[in-house]
Write a structure and sequence with these properties.
single chain, alpha/beta, 5 strands, globular
């Protein structure tokens, strides 16, 4: 176990090949959208700690390019890089899962009716499986499974968030 721990310590964000590949995939999606002007990406992970790690190491890089990220883990510690005025901060609760998901999928969740004052939206959503059931996020056309859940039904549910049946 000590050997594994010593090796794990050497993995930093700049030496994390999986994180680097994820960053590259997202950059390619942003540069070459599948559907015109659609930069929406969902990154699913099974663990809240992994989601926090990804958000910490990706969100600042993309916000400088006008691409806003959010994290949803189901424990109430949800947040986003979406810029907001003081007025918006009073009306929007970015700790609320439904608010974050509405700002991520504005067409399917009719954001303009709920939050007509919001003109910027979330493009990258990093989430745990807390949103893999019962959420319609069809504005998104690109889903990345950062890790695979042991239960294949969970994987199917993840894909079901972005596909119309």
């Amino acid at each position: 176990l000590e050997t594994i721990l010593l090796e794990a310590i050497n993995v930093t964000p700049d030496r994390d090949a999986k994180l680097i590949e994820l960053r590259t995939l997202i950059q390619e999606k942003m540069s070459n959208p599948i559907n015109t002007d659609n930069k929406k990406v969902i990154v699913f992970t099974a663990f809240a700690d992994t989601a926090k790690y990804l958000y910490k190491n990706l969100s600042d890089e993309f916000v400088g390019k006008g691409i806003y990220s959010a994290i949803v883990t189901g424990n109430g510690d949800n947040h986003s890089t979406l810029p907001m005025t003081k007025e918006l901060k009073r009306t929007l609760k970015l700790t609320d899962i439904n608010t974050v998901l509405t700002l991520f999928s504005p067409r399917s969740k009719e954001c303009s009716k709920i939050y007509p004052e919001v003109h910027e939206h979330i493009d990258i959503l990093i989430a745990t499986d807390c949103i893999s059931e019962g959420q319609n996020l069809q504005d998104c056309d690109y889903l990345i499974n950062y890790d695979i859940h042991w239960n294949p039904v969970r994987i199917i549910q993840r894909f079901g968030r972005i596909l119309w049946y």
